[in-house]
Design a protein that fits this description.
This protein has 542 residues and is α+β, with helices and mostly antiparallel strands. It has three domains: 87 residues, Uridine Diphospho-n-acetylenolpyruvylglucosamine Reductase, domain 2, CATH 3.30.43; 171 residues, Uridine Diphospho-n-acetylenolpyruvylglucosamine Reductase, domain 3; 206 residues, Vanillyl-alcohol Oxidase, Chain A, domain 3. 37% of the residues lie in helices and 17% in strands. It has 20 helices and 22 strands. It is globular. The two termini are 23 Å apart. It binds flavin-adenine dinucleotide.
Length: 542
Amino acid sequence: MNKIAHYLQGHIAGEVTSNPDARRYFAHDASILEIVPTAIVYPRNENDVRKSIRFAWQLAGRGRKLPITPRGMGSGTSGSAIGSGIVLVFPAHMNKVVSLDTKKRTMSAQPGANFGALLQMLQTHGLFLPPYPASKDYATIGGAVANNAIGEKSVKYGAMADFVQSLRVVLSNGELIETGPLSQKELSHKMGLQTLEGEIYRLIDALLEENAHLLPVGRERLKARFSSIGYNIFDVKKNGQFDLTPLFTGSLGTLGVITEVTFRVAPHHPRTTQMLVSLEELEDLGDILPSLLDLKPSMADMLSRAAVQQILELNPNQLSDLSMPHEAFMHLFIEFDDSKEADRKKKVKHLQKIVDGLGAWSEVYEDLQSQERLRKLSGSVAILLQPQGPAVATPIAEDISVPVDKLADFLKKIQLVYREVGLPPALWGQAGIGVVRMWPALDLGQTGDRQKLFKIQGSLYAAAVRHGGSISASAGDGRVRAPYSPMVYGPEVHALMLSVKKIFDPRGILNPGVKTASTEEIKVLMRSSYSLSNFYDYLPRS
Ligand SMILES: Cc1cc2nc3c(=O)[nH]c(=O)nc-3n(C[C@H](O)[C@H](O)[C@H](O)COP(=O)(O)OP(=O)(O)OC[C@H]3O[C@@H](n4cnc5c(N)ncnc54)[C@H](O)[C@@H]3O)c2cc1C
């Protein structure tokens, strides 16, 4: 055990390790980067988190930087769940449901609670947490909040940020705070505190006042519905209230470490009607989407022809009992979850007319088994596209978002860029919110493939931003996309966002490099080969 691990083990209740195998394992998340940590801490309670962070704060005061990286299951793809100092791994012990109020429809949970398990529990009460990511079976609730996750239901229900009500957070000096909407009087009280919390309220309030003219500039630039870039400075002051919660949501562990999340949940309607629609032409997409969105679908996902071709080659069984025309340009997975069957029927009938008008193929699915199969297919494309060999499906442009009315144009650009680099444009995502997901097959050990990676990123990020979109809808800038982040809101608004970081983390210990890395730093950190290794290794359990 190294000195740091030894010291921490003597002061906290959870386990600490600096075992070389464990450090090698936690050097990776689901991104293309690699950073070996100094020690791994499995906090048993909030006090363990506070002591670990306080230790790093004091070291930084003496000139020694020991970064703190909070981590759920490491399924994030932006390189933000890895770091060179202490990695705080939450799923081991801090994984409990704290409370569930079925009348008020609210739940509180520790950050390491498994998203999929929470959903199962909620569904037994006729409830659910709608923005579940496709990775829900291994992702944690803390990771999903820190990423501001979205998923197949986001078209109707929104992102995690729309559900998080309040957070318990350990600040960079080890202080524990609770967030939530504050009245003017409550804000004044907070601003009077002689603590880091008080300082944060004073400085953030002043920063937003002095730069109020920049907020509309940022809002105006981004027209896509979802973006996880920078910090959400736009919703801190809203409806006469002041709330730090939007800043922490999507902050990727760079402003504080979340130790408890309280969120709203929604009524779950298990009876749904699904429809699979196969469009022959790119133009059909632009024609169908506005009318489809008017019908308020609970899912409007897509799968491209090239993705279907690749699934047919790699995992043909997944498509064997679906009779859709494989050669169609785009397949849409549509769902209506209205509680009344008559409403669902009306919507399907309406949509069917539009589909027939386009001469498109479609099929309606009412039985639960077929529906589950369709949902599994659309939610596991990244895994189904995994080829055999040194080139593997790699998350480098995995959730670009554009305004829905620009989606067809953006898909044209993707086809061009992929043709230039000689790869098939296998893509999927949430058509209804303009989110496009791509994991091209690349061998990171080959210089040529690394060049393709930067070409795809650079060209598509620039095109998305030109369309009023974002370079990431949910995975976030992290490290991988940080060099491109200023493009999204423009340099002035981006600089304002980075001032927020300095206020929360004056000694720079919370996940440094995340949201701020340069292209040169990324190149040095890149793995020589990519894989989605076992997410459950090296985890004590309780
Ligand atoms: C195959 C695949 C499919 C995916 N599909 C989706 C999808 O549909 N939608 C989507 O949004 N994402 C998706 N993701 C990305 C990722 O799985 C999700 O964002 C997920 O919510 C991350 O959870 P995690 O527990 O693995 O977090 P981690 O990867 O461990 O961490 C993610 C970030 O959260 C921070 N963090 C973790 N815990 C805390 C805490 N307690 N306090 C503060 N910060 C914390 C970390 O520092 C890191 O910055 C996918 C990933 C894969 C590999």
